Amino acid sequence: MIVAVSCQVLAKVGRDEQATMVSVAGIIVVLLFLVRELGELFDAVKEVFGI
To answer: What is the sign, positive or negative, of the torsion defined by CA atoms of 6, 9, 15, 19?
Structure first.
């Protein structure tokens, strides 16, 4: 949400390049969180099935 607002503000001010960099950084952060959560999910599944 913060990334979306930041991108909109930067785009309105005319800083399109910075808006693109902020959106890319936001995507990277979300992907890092997603990878960590998926790792925990796979660990839980392994524990449940005794793999």
So the answer is: positive
Token representation of residue 47: 């524990």
Cα–Cα distances in Å, from 12 out to 2, 24, 26, 34?
15, 18, 19, 30
Is residue 42 very low, low, confident or very high in pLDDT (cuts 50, 70, 90)?
A: very high
Give the whole-angstrom CA distance, residue 21 versus residue 48. Answer: 41
The one-letter code for the residue type at 24 is V
How far is 33 from 26, CA to CA, in rounded Å?
11
- Number of Cβ within 10 Å of residue 36's Cβ equals 10
pTM of the model: 0.72
